[in-house]
Amino acid sequence: MRLRKNMKRTAAAVLALSMAVSAVAAPASAAYICNVSQGSVEVSVNEKGEKTIKVGDDSVTIKMDGTKETTGNGIKEDGDGTEDIVITGDNTKPTESLNAEEENTSEVEKSGENTSEVEKSGETEGEGKTQNSAAEGEDKGDEPTSQELLAPEDEEKKDEQKPADSQEPEQTEKTSDQVIEYGQYDPEAQKEAAKPAAEQKAEEKKAAEEKTYGDTNAPTSLSESVQTAANNVVKIINKSKETLKVILRDLKVDAGNTNKSAVTVSGTGNVTLELDGKNELTGGSGYTGGRKAAGVVVASDDAKLTIQGKEGSSLSATGGAGTGESDNYDGYGIRAGKLDLMDATVTATGGVETEKDSNIKNSKLIANGGIGTNGKFTVGEGGEVIAIGKDVKTTDGKAQGGNALGFWGIGSGYEVQKGGKLTAIGGNAESESGDATGGNALWGEYGGIVSAGETTLIGGNAKSGSGKATGGDAIKGSCDYFTQVTVKEGTFTAAGGKSESATSTAANGNSVNITPVIGNDSKTQLEVQEGGTFVTAKPGNSDENGNGITGKIEINTAGGKIEEMENAQVVKKDDGTVEVVGDLVGIKQDGHSYELTVMEPTCTTPGKRIYTCTTPGHEGETYEEIISDALGHHFVEGVCTRCGAPEQAAAENSSSSAVTLTVTGAGDYETSIADGRYIIAVPAETAVLSGCLGNLRELKAQGVTTIVFRTQLRETALNIDSMLSLGVDDTLFTLTHSGESAELTVGGFAHNELLH
User: Fold this and answer.
1) Domain spans of the chain?
2) CA separation (Å) from 174 to 165, 166, 247?
3) Share of residues in the chain with pLDDT > 70 (%)
4) pLDDT tens digits, residue range 234-250?
5) What average pLDDT does the structure give for the chain?
6) How far is CA 143 from the centre of its chain?
7) What's the N-to-C CA distance of the chain in angstroms?
8) 401 near 435, Cβ under 8 Å?
9) In the β-sheet with 506-507, what is the strand arrangement from edge to edge?
10) Alpha carbon distance 323, 370 (integer Å)
11) How far is Cα 418 from Cα 492, in angstroms, rounded to an integer?
C-alpha cells in the first residue's frame, strides 16, 4: 500500500511538473474563437508583436516565442492548426446563447472541463491529490484503482481519449466565449481592464443602471439585459508594424442606444477584416465626436483597413440612426483613414468617409449616405461602387438632399479605372411648404474626377409644395480648386436632377456646374480623350433653367466627343445600377458643334446619324456615323415581313442553270449585309444553305467578301474568293449545319478546309 501511495504521489508530482513545463512550451496552433454574444471582444497587438485576446474576464497572450499566458479560463480554441482570430456571435441574444451552451454541455464534458486539484500550479504536495482518484483510493483501503493497474500501452490510449484541454496543458482550464467590454482606447480603459472581476462587474452594473452613454437624446426604453448586451462590442488594437488579420464569421453586433461603434480599430498598424458568412455591424445611436456612432471606425488616419471576403460572404455596416426627420448626423457605416476592399461585398448605411487613399478592386460597395474623401478614391478593375445621397423630407422649412460623392483635400478626388464602374445619385429633397434642393451626385473643391471605366452621375430630384424647387447637379464645384473632369475611355454620363413646385419656380439641375469666383481667371478643364464619350443629359420635362454645362469650364474633346441628350429618363436596373436614356440632339467634337439627324435602318440600308456642323465658318459641313446594321429581310413563305419584297427564287423553266441561295430546314430566317459580310441567320439547330458560285460572284460585285451562315449552335464564314476558285458559275455548293458540326461540298466534293 505504501508503494502504491508513493507511486501515486510520484505520478502527481510528475503531472504537476509537466503542467509547469507546459506553461513555457510552444503550443500547437489553433484558431481562437471569440463570441460577442457573451461580452465585448478585444484583440490587441503590442509593439513587439505579442497578441492579447480578451473574452470577458478571460484572456490569452501569445508571446513572441510561442508561449502563452492566460487569465481566467483562457480563450476557446478550435484546434484547426491555424492561429487565426475569429470573432463570431450575436450580441442581441446573450441569454439565449449562454443557456443553449449550458444545455448542450453534457456531464462528461463538464467534468472534462473542470480543473483538478493536482492540476492547480499553486498547491503543495500534501494538497496535490486528485479528488477522484488518489483521495478515493486511500479511503478504500488503498486498493489499487483502475488507473493504477493500466499497462503502459493502456496509459497511452487513455491519454489519447482525454479531452483536448487535458491533453494540451494550455487548454486545461475552462474555456469561455465571454468577451470584455471596452470603450475608446486610452490608459483609463486599460486600468479598468486590470481591475478585479468583482469590481468590474459592480461598476458595469452601476453603469447600466445610470445609462450614462454620453450626450444622447435616444430613447432608453430597452430592458437592462438587452441594454447590457448592446454594450458588447468589438475593439481591435494593432501597434505593430505587421498587418493584423481578424476573421468576422457570421458576426452580429448592435450597439443599441450607446455611443459605441460596433467595431473600433485603433493603433498605428494596418488591420485586415476577413469576411466569412453574413456579418452585420450597427453602431449605437448615441453621439460621439458630433455624430452618432459608426458601424466600423478606424481611429488612426494613417492605418489602413482592408476588408476582404470569402466566396458568398458579405458585410453590412450601419451607423447609428436618428429618429427625427431633420437629423443629419447619422453615424457612418464605415469611417477609416485608408480603406481597401478586395473580393468583398459591402453595404455601408450611413455612408463611407476616408481621410486618405482608398481602393476598391474586384468588390462591390454600396454606400447609402454617400462617400466623402480627403484623399484619392479609386474604383479599380472588377470594382463597382454605388453611392446614394441621403433623402430628406420636411413638413416645413428647407429640405436639402445629401451629396452622393464629395472630396475636399488637395490631391483628392475620384478615379474610375478601366474595368471599374461608378454610379452616384444625389439625395432627393421634398418640403411641403419650404424650398427643396436636390443633392449633388458629385461635389468637390480640390482635384476632380478621372474615368476610364463606366461612370454615371445623377443629381437628386427636388419637390416643393409652395417653395422653390432646384434639382441637384451631377457635377458641382468651385473653379478655384476643382481642376478637372477627364474622360479617358468608356462612357461618362452626367444628368441633373428634376424639379417640381406646385406654386413657385422650379429649375432642373445641371450636368456640370462649376461656380465662378469673382476675380479668378482659372477654369476647370473638361477633357474627353480619344475613345471616351461624355454624355450630358437634360432631365425630362425640363425648362429653360440649368440643365447643361455651365460655369467657368474649358472644353477639350481631344479626339473624344460630348453627346447632348434631352428628355432624359433615369432607368433603374435590377442590380441597383442606373442607365440614362434619352434623345441625342447633337455633339461637340474637336472644337465643333454639330446638330444631329437620325436615319433609321431598313432592310437594305444601315442606321445612320448625320451630323451637320453649326460652328461659324463651317456651317453645312456633314459627316455620317453608322449606328446599326441594315435590318435585312425577314422572309416567311417567300415574302419579307418588313418591306414586302418577294424572295428571289429559281424559275423552274428558266434556261439558266443558276439558282439563288436557298435555305432549307427552317420556315423563316433573316439576311443582312454589313461591313462586306452577307449574313444568313436561321433560328434552328439544323439547316442547309445551297446555291451556285455564280450567286457568290453577284454578291462580290455588290461589295460582299464573306458569306456568314449562322444557326443556333454554329456560325460558319466562307471567303467568296476562295469559293470562286473551285469552279465556274454553275458549280453548285451546299453548306450543312447540324448542331455544332458543319460540312461543305462544292461541285460534289468535300471542302471543309474552307470553313471558318
Assistant:
1) 2-171, 250-322+330-356, 360-583, 596-628, 644-754
2) 8, 10, 23
3) 73
4) 999 999 999 999 999 99
5) 77
6) 69
7) 96
8) no
9) 399-400, 436-437, 469-470, 506-507
10) 19
11) 12
